[in-house]
Automatic annotation (TrEMBL):
The keyword Membrane applies. Gene3D superfamilies: NCX, central ion-binding region. It holds the Pfam family Na_Ca_ex. This is Cation:H+ antiporter. Signal peptide: none annotated. It comes from Tangfeifania diversioriginum. Residues 6-150, 173-313 form the Sodium/calcium exchanger membrane region domain. Keywords: Membrane, Transmembrane, Transmembrane helix. The keyword Transmembrane applies. GO terms for cellular component: plasma membrane. It is a multi-pass membrane protein.
Length: 318
């Protein structure tokens, strides 16, 4: 098991570094062709921080590890909302824009509700499964989200800056290619060794996906949000998390389902309830204290809920 643990850690490191290189190369390439920072942040960076989840899930889905597929996305989204916003909100109270309060947070809640309805097959009397058709519907929702992002760039423009880009086109392309290769290699190492560890310890795929894999693939979001909070750039901190959670459901689950239909274990409903409740709590928190912000005491509540819930899940497995 020691070898599997070391390979799992190596896989997470390769996965995260691959995402970093992919974002760096793609961002530099986009800037070279005068794509705005806002578009880069809401597309390339959001995709980059969700890329580990996407790669892990595609590999897990192709091998029919359904509980890892669901545990990774739900675990990552819960970690994003409770753990990462909890930590960043304690570092510095998170003030957000009005559009985040009234549009992006409700859209994130809508994504959770849609996942709940599709996964439990409320519209079809059949075994609970996220089918390829469901995946295509989620892709449609992802397309609508990207259209919203496009419209947002027309009304919320960043100031134009003159910047000399020292990175050559060859280096940009090289970073993108190596980053993608790192994602694929790291993803395979994570999935295969997580399953081996679960088998050896007698743990379920869910608990491995929800804890080790989910937290590991959420490290890009954690790093981005903590740095943003330290720099007091709270819009990036909150926007990164909300955007990533939307990406994970509308893009990552969609891709997984199209690769192979995902059998839904109803035990995951409790995680969906927690995610929906946390998103609703975040929305309500925007109206306490007179400003649209997440105060330190509210962030502390989120963090404590995450620690308590994770401890409960682990205790059930022991």
């Amino acid at each position: 098991m020691l070898v599997n643990s070391l390979l799992l850690i190596l896989g997470l490191a390769v996965l995260i570094k691959g995402a970093d290189w992919l974002v760096s190369g793609a961002s530099a390439l986009a800037k070279k062709y005068h794509v705005s920072d806002l578009v880069i942040g809401l597309t390339i960076v959001a995709f980059g921080t969700s890329a580990p989840e996407l790669v892990v899930n595609v590999i897990a889905s192709s091998q029919n590890f359904n509980d890892i597929v669901l545990g990774n996305v739900l675990g990552s989204n819960i970690a994003n909302l409770f753990l990462i916003l909890g930590i960043t909100g304690i570092i510095y109270p998170l003030v957000v824009q009005s559009s985040t309060t009234w549009k992006e947070i409700p859209l994130s809640l809508l994504a959770v509700v849609i996942l709940f309805l599709l996964a439990n097959n409320f519209f079809i009397l059949d075994n609970p499964v996220i089918s390829r058709l469901d995946g295509l519907f989620l892709f449609l929702m992802f397309g609508l989200f990207m259209f919203y992002v496009y419209r947002l760039t027309k009304t919320d423009k960043a100031p134009v800056e003159v910047e000399v880009n020292a990175m050559s086109s060859f280096k940009m392309i090289t970073l993108i290619v190596i980053g993608l290769a790192g994602l694929i290699l790291g993803g395979r190492l994570v999935v295969n060794n997580a399953v081996e560890i679960a088998t050896i310890l007698g743990l379920s795929e869910k608990i491995i996906g929800f804890t080790i894999v989910a937290i590991g693939t959420s490290l890009p979001e954690l790093a981005t949000s903590v740095v943003a909070a330290l720099k007091k750039n709270t819009n990036i901190a909150v926007g990164n998390i909300i955007g990533s959670n939307i990406f994970n459901i509308f893009l990552v689950i969609a891709t997984s389902a199209v690769v192979s239909p995902v059998t839904f274990n109803p035990v995951f409903n409790i995680d969906i309830y927690l995610l929906a409740g946390g998103t609703l709590f975040l929305f309500i928190a925007m109206f306490t204290g007179g400003k649209k912000k997440l105060d330190r005491w509210e962030a502390t509540i989120l963090l404590l809920i995450y620690l308590g819930y994770t401890a409960m899940l682990v205790a059930k497995e022991i």
